[in-house]
């Protein structure tokens, strides 16, 4: 390339790079700066306190519990979402056994694809409203209503889904998985469709069943998409703010009952906006950033495999 | 890669173009940067820019100039925001002021950046679930001392100070560090509520003792409805009942012990022990409305409006909040918290006080207008206008024109306020002073109502929250005598 063209390229890169620096990197740096202060969040005056906020975090049981909850979510959300959507994607694309020698999905697979995608169209705020009605703790709730009608639950002691320390996290998890499966179904479907049919036909000719086809052919060829899905879902599991703060009980961004529905983001926001400990909350934000980065790196490293060209 | 410019044909991008482009980029990025820093805590503009130049007279104690500006932001919750629009119209008529209005539920989201940027609005009703906590604002030096407004001559009777026309003690909840920094405008009464119609139908009398109260709960259970409903998702409400019972059983000393973070506020307090055990009895005997521990305020209050429970705790905004859900013949009635044996306060004693804090930021640009606005809020004309638009009383003594007919719930609170008098009205201050302690006690209460902890454990956890708040050096500034 001639000299002028470097400039031309640089000119194009400048805008996105500047936006990235301003809107992503600079806020991180600012957050780190605030995390070293006793900023209240409502005033431009604050003192530098060094690493005090970080040492306090180590003794904060609520924060530690919240991290543990995020870790649990981090394990279960990606595994369950990926397994379910892989299964559905397989059935919808190559699981069918009709027709002469053709490789296709089960009957009506196009309709299924659309139906499974429905939840993805809804925003998280709408999900929260929907599931609040579903999990409602008296006979007016959808689940309780059905269970009471079936005689499985006593009308005098309905299941208080979100007010039950043992159920609350699982209930949140169900919402996220229900919401996510449709998207990853489409992602995996697209990847599956790019797998050459001859491979499947060869497998068929060799007498492979559905499960053998899936584990020996489909999954290895989809590995890159699974990897991507894992990172995305990991980020979702580290966040969870919208659902946890609206669906779980408690004053100031939920997190109840008694911190059993807490995630890092709810503790962070409560400290930031409700308790006036914004500097402390910024320290939590930095810890969350570091954790998310570590998890992304581990996931990408651990799932690294040889690439199969086709 | 072609440039259309003929001069640079064949040479890629010309230097001149590149400079032009980067200049254009700079134009975009530079304002964005300053916008961003305004978002966080960029400017520390402590110089106030008061623009008013009006003459200070007895009718115009703050020197408001004609044709100025005023920006009002109100929490649009249980009281709506029509009352504020009516006021602004009256203010604009009097002073020719250009007023701007915002009614919102997201006080924090809308205003936090503006406080940090040093350009907050002039008058704010800082209330609701997303209020910016007053202790936090005060610590940041963001709240104007309202003493000047309270010392100004009253609109209705210029020979009196504004403070002399208010219900006794109604400015106390606005105290932070010994100064009145928020005007808690609405006079609120907290306690239990029931349906006059339901009670008449069933032949139940208003319970004055805790035993009678439990008795009605049992009868309600027998009749197939819940005894007590509460807004379990937000344990703020059940804490009203618990704390009122403590204050009435142990007297004002028990209440002050909690506000003053006494090491024996809960553990070692006989009143607290008796009260929490009494509340636990409701749970233990299965007298709660089924499922109420997980319901939001709207869900549980609507259930109660459908006669699914006998009692519910709340403040006097309840009637306005439930206007649409309340049947026409419901006959909403207020009930002071019933008494345990050996109580120090009489049955008529109620938690009453001013709520809905209106504030003026230190950095407001139109302070004279804001202070005059507040003075006018405390006139009979504006107070009556509020009662009409929002179905609630204000802190102005006899502040409602008798020609205004009140709804049954509001009417019953007027009677309750009269019966209690100044002597038997009390109010806790710790929720405004120590938000972290408040939330910790609420969490414990939620556990108790869900039968996951026992009264002894509740006392321990409440005391731990008090002790933690006492360790914060900032708590030394607050004390009530």
From TrEMBL, chain A:
Q: Tell me the ranges covered by the ABC transmembrane type-1 domain, including all copies.
A: 67-299
Its membrane topology, per UniProt? Multi-pass membrane protein
State the UniProt keywords alphabetically. Answer: Cell membrane, Membrane, Transmembrane, Transmembrane helix, Transport
Q: Indicate the secretion signal residues.
A: none
GO BP: transmembrane transport
Q: Where in the cell is it found?
A: Cell membrane
Main localisation: membrane
Q: Name the residues that span the membrane.
A: 7-29, 67-93, 114-135, 167-187, 229-247, 278-300
Q: Does the keyword Ribonucleoprotein apply?
A: no
Q: Which InterPro entries match?
A: ABC_transporter_permease, MetI-like, MetI-like_sf
Provide the Gene Ontology terms for cellular component.
Answer: plasma membrane
> What Pfam families does UniProt report for this protein, alphabetically?
BPD_transp_1
Family to which this protein belongs: Belongs to the binding-protein-dependent transport system permease family.
* Name recorded for this polypeptide: Sugar ABC transporter permease
Species for this entry: Streptomyces beijiangensis
Taxonomic lineage: Bacteria, Bacillati, Actinomycetota, Actinomycetes, Kitasatosporales
UniProtKB/TrEMBL annotation, chain B:
Matching entries from SUPFAM superfamilies are given as: Periplasmic binding protein-like II
Alphabetical UniProt keywords: Signal, Transport
UniProt lists compositionally biased (Basic and acidic residues) regions at 46-58
Q: Does the keyword Signal apply?
A: yes
Mostly located where? other
Per the record's keyword annotation, is Signal included, yes or no?
yes
Question: What is any one of the record's Gene Ontology cellular component terms?
Answer: cell envelope
Q: Where is this region: Disordered?
A: 41-60
| UniProt xrefs under PROSITE patterns | TAT (PS51318)
Where is it localised?
Cell envelope
Q: Which InterPro entries match?
A: Bact_solute-bd_prot1 (IPR050490), Chitin_NgcE (IPR022386), SBP (IPR006059), TAT_signal (IPR006311)
Q: Which family does it belong to?
A: Belongs to the bacterial solute-binding protein 1 family.
PANTHER family on file? ARABINOSE-BINDING PROTEIN-RELATED (PTHR43649), SN-GLYCEROL-3-PHOSPHATE-BINDING PERIPLASMIC PROTEIN UGPB (PTHR43649:SF31)
What is the name listed in the Swiss-Prot or TrEMBL entry for this protein?
Answer: N-acetylglucosamine/diacetylchitobiose ABC transporter substrate-binding protein
Q: Which organism is it from?
A: Streptomyces beijiangensis
Gene name, per UniProt, is: ngcE
